[in-house]
């Protein structure tokens, strides 16, 4: 009945609003702290004026920040909002919408080792499956958290650690209803404006709804990016997944993505704006065939 379907969106909106409220509080807190630090610096500099120091080259600083954003384990506190429209789903060519909220938080453990925490919280609007009785669904999907331990200095940038997937929904088409964990690793090289490398993780389920299928899934993200002196970044990458529980053609989902980003600002904060798309060269029978992506990554100050 129509009344049953209308019961879902209010819960979805409450969840989405709660998540956005949390991140808004974070932004306001950081902005207040930054303003206080600027005011303190201004008061301390009220002494007799000296000759002004040479201003840093803004283009160079922006290009360096943009280049760091191509590094998944850079020592930057960032808050990406990634909007994805996946199209061509099923025989009716339907569209799935995914908003990934992906905060990145680096921690200095000691002079030699950093820990970088990366969270992916997906909010999904899913079309009805093309099966009898299939209904559309919206809500928060499983939340993935990765912990990378990385050396502070290394000719080749790398990080390894655990990854944990937390079940965040009971809607079968949105999540697994399983707790999963496994290893994750990333390795990359940066030379001039060029960045190339790969990120991989593998998770296996160890607890959760016993009536749901076990999880054994790999994620592989090879990438190559080039950042110009004007802080433009051009990226080619894939975000491939392999479901080892499936035999045959439905196991792999392989998009090839092309992305363009520009570092600018969001209020008082540096921010990167990204636009791009992708084509799925391999996908399940009812999977998406192409996608559009838009993203904003807000960079936040970090106390050291």
Structure at a glance:
With 304 residues, the chain is of the alpha+beta class. It has helices at residues 2-6, 8-44, 58-69; strands spanning 77-89, 94-101, 104-108, 113-126, 137-140, 143-151, 157-166, 178-191, 194-208, 216-227, 232-238, 240-243, 252-266, 269-282, 290-300. It has a single domain, classed as Beta Barrel (Porin).
Order of helices and strands: HHHEEEEEEEEEEEEEEE
**Helix/strand-derived class?**
alpha+beta
Q: Total strand count, please? A: 15
Q: For the record, what CATH class applies?
A: Mainly Beta
The biggest beta sheet reads: 15 strands, antiparallel
Proportion in helices: 10-25%
What is the third-level CATH name, the topology? Porin
Tell me what the CATH architecture is. Beta Barrel
CATH superfamily: monomeric porin ompg
Tally the helices: what do you get?
3
Tell me the span between the first and last alpha carbons.
56 Å
Mean pLDDT: 85
Low-confidence stretches: 1-19, 28-56
The rounded Rg comes to 21 Å
Beta-strand percentage?
Answer: over 45%
Shape: globular
What is the count of distinct domains?
A: 1
